[in-house]
Amino acid sequence: MAEQKERAKATPRKTATRRKATTSSKTTKKTTANTQVPKIRKEVRGLFTMLFAFVALLGMFNITSGTVVDVIAGIFKYGFGFGGIIPCLYVGYVGWRILYADEGFSFTKRGLLLSLVYLFGITVITLLLADPGQELLTTKIATQGGVIGGLLAVLLRTLLGDVGAIIVAVVLILGLLLLIYQISLRSGLHKAKEKTDVGLEIARNITEETVHQAKERYTEWKEQQAEKRRAYNQEKDERFTKSAAAEVIANAAQVSAEARAEAEVVLTTETPSQGITIESSVDSNQIKEVLVSQASHQSDERPAEEQVANMVADEDDADDELEVPPFLRGPSSYPSVVDDSAHSEAVESTAAQERYEDEAVAIDESDIEAASITKPVAPSTASLTAMHPVPTMDGTAEDTAAVAVTVGGAPKPRRIELPYRFPSLTMLSKGTVNPVTGQEVTHNVTVLEETLKSFGVTARVVNATQGPTVTRYEIEPAPGTKVSRILNLSDDLKMALAAIDIRIEAPIPGKSAVGIEVPNKNVTAVHLRDVLEAEKFQKARGGIPVGLGKDIAGEAVITDLAKMPHLLVAGSTGSGKSVCVNTLISSILFSRKPSEVQLILVDPKMVELSVYNGIPHLKVPVVTDMKKAAAVLRWAVREMEARYLAMSENGVRNISGFNERYPDKAMPLILIIIDELADLMMTAPDVEEAINRLAAKARAAGIHMVLATQRPSVNVITGTIKANVPSRISFAVATQIDSRTILDMAGAEKLLGKGDMLFNPIGASKPIRIQGAFISDEEVEELVAFVKQQGRPEYDESIVEEVEQELVEEADHDTEEQDELLERAAELVISAGQGSTSMLQRRFRIGYSRAARLIDTMEEMRIIGPANGSKPRDILMTFAAAKEKYFTK
């Protein structure tokens, strides 16, 4: 009985439980249905909105007609006139947004400004097409600006008149467009003026240089002509002696009768000045002279009067001693008198001119009047077959014609310095902007506020600043809220936002707000051209201005390396360090001449900076050998001391004061860029001292350094280097310890890589987040090729000689006699991690003196450090590096 009662009691309970489950499932279904109904309604609403716009378009283009179509199309056609298609398309777009993205019409500042631009646009259309008083005519309203455009046109014409209304409307449109797209007319006009000034300056320089070159060429030609006249002496020339000329005349007398008869021709010429024709008969003696003249003057272009004068001279002159003109030479078939045809022609023309001036013969006017033309005289090659070759210069010691052209040796080519032209930014590509959508910002704001509220932190987002890579949300906590509570929620916020990583800046310097930096879904690449086109870079004067990138607000970050005064660049592999170094060098090439800034590039990798070999800014070729790098840094120390000495003697405190006082002795700024500091310090440990000295003192001497490394450890970035290099850039690193090593604070481990950096300049309380500028390898090669065309590098020979001398001395030191146990002792000490005399005595079973000498030798070689009391000596070099430097023959 008891069991039956218990069963009876249990049965109703199960029934009640089932009822409750059924009720809850029904409630859930109702809730789901209730939530789905509004969504479907919105989709239907969006669909009908699109249908409304589609029907309006059909009516506006007269594709179809009907009462409903005409009414819907008339709303847009008569309301907005010629521009009615734009609001019609916008209605269709709103319907699509309702259907697809569950977003309807929303008011924004940008949308309001664009609407105003549209309204003033249709107003301008009405003002241009409608006569005064006809703005609202029903027959024309649809083809003008509609009712709205007509009303605005009537208002503006009433207030400002016809012309004034058009001008005001156009100006308002331009002003609204400037506000929408953030375009500055002032900066545009300034840029246009600057480009025009640069173009005019280049044109003026090119014109001046062209005129200068032409003057120099003319002066050189005049000097060469003068040298020819001074160097050539006909009386000493054996080719033109009287005996040689008499021999030629004698040979000419043996001409055959046929040739002589053929040669008895009437000389014909024309006087250019008077147009008089000349005819005269010549006897046998004159024929000889004619034949000699024809044989020797085929290439001579003398005036006709002088030719006739030499042939119709008085017969009494035949009894005189015959003298051959100095321009005598045989026909082209005979050997040339002078081997160099160019020199011979120059000498002949000069000598002939002098000869004509000295032996000019007057022409009898009576003979000229009796002359008439019969036929021109042609040179007879048959009559010259019996002539002997003209004497050559085989027996002479030197060619006087050649001496006349190049007295004292070949002329030294002149090097003309062209004006230096800066490369144009057009060779770099511009970046594209991927703006953060308002929907993404709104979503992140809601998530941040709700997440903080769920953890008991009351705060609200007061501002959102969009940058190329991240967006910073400024959160204002409620009074009495600790900042540390927000900092401790970093991982929870990252999970709520589904972000790769976030960085919290608490508080933002100068604001009573906490900044939460969230990565953008669409990252905008920052190109170097976008940075260097900034007005701050274009107007930079003095120093070494460089472009780093854009900050979190999208503003270009331009800094001066001369004011840093040294820069440390560190980050993990692939974080953008090498690209940053390229942007620094490229910025210098775009803004500074070789006379203003000179570079010393140290590239242990041998591939990063070798592309810059040959640019005129280099002080020495790109250094890839670590031994040479150490020597170059030691030269830089000596150069620093020499500059300080010069400044102290002239009573100035820094290089800028020295250059202002003595512009003719101006010293350029020197920038030393070391691409991999860790490799340099490992292979050449003695460079640390030189780097420390330069970092401590070189600022006032105009010597600055950029130290880059991908190994941010305390062995590389020592305390002394950090103390003397206050300006630092940190790219993405692996751990917080590395971030503290570089920046003395955490934060770099939160960076995203690919150029995302923290820049901590001298004097800044907190680092600035920057998206580094990008320049491709092709752009670097094009830039370097252009700069190489502006001039050749003038390497400092003293640096090269000193470096080579130090390498020779170091090699001599290495070849000195060494202890046979030195290599084994170095291997033992390095493997053990410490070195002591007693350890060497025990291991090698040698005496104290020999073991102490081994320790001293290794200390001189910088394999181990100096004694440090009771502590073991530091190991300064790996055994592989020591073996390569000291024990490899």
From TrEMBL:
Comp. bias regions, Low complexity: 22-33
CDD domains associated with the record: TrwB_TraG_TraD_VirD4
Question: Does Lipoprotein show up as a keyword for this record?
Answer: no
Where is this protein found?
A: Cell membrane
Amino-acid positions noted as binding ATP in the UniProt annotation, renumbered to this chain: G571, S572, T573, G574, S575, G576, K577, S578
**Protein family according to the UniProt entry:** Belongs to the FtsK/SpoIIIE/SftA family.
PROSITE patterns cross-referenced by the UniProt entry: FTSK (PS50901)
Question: What GO terms in the biological process aspect are recorded for it?
Answer: cell division; chromosome segregation
Parts forming coiled coils: 204-238
Ranges where the record places region Disordered: 1-35
One of the entry's Gene Ontology molecular-function terms is: ATP binding
Q: Name one GO cellular component term.
A: plasma membrane
The membrane topology noted for this protein in its Swiss-Prot or TrEMBL record is: Multi-pass membrane protein
Q: What does this protein do?
A: Essential cell division protein that coordinates cell division and chromosome segregation. The N-terminus is involved in assembly of the cell-division machinery. The C-terminus functions as a DNA motor that moves dsDNA in an ATP-dependent manner towards the dif recombination site, which is located within the replication terminus region. Required for activation of the Xer recombinase, allowing activation of chromosome unlinking by recombination.
- InterPro entries given in the database record: FtsK/SpoIIIE/SftA, FtsK_4TM, FtsK_alpha, FtsK_dom, Ftsk_gamma, P-loop_NTPase, WH-like_DNA-bd_sf, WH_DNA-bd_sf
Which Pfam families does this entry report, sorted A to Z?
FtsK_4TM, FtsK_alpha, FtsK_gamma, FtsK_SpoIIIE
List the keywords (alphabetical).
ATP-binding, Cell cycle, Cell division, Cell membrane, Chromosome partition, Coiled coil, DNA-binding, Membrane, Nucleotide-binding, Transmembrane, Transmembrane helix
Q: Which residues form the FtsK domain?
A: 554-740
Q: Where are the transmembrane segments?
A: 47-69, 75-99, 111-130, 136-156, 163-183
The name this protein goes by in its record: Stage III sporulation protein E
The keyword Cell cycle is assigned to this record: yes
Q: Indicate, by first and last residue, each region the UniProt record lists as having compositional bias (Basic residues).
A: 10-21
Record organism: Veillonella criceti
Q: Please state the gene responsible for encoding this protein.
A: spoIIIE
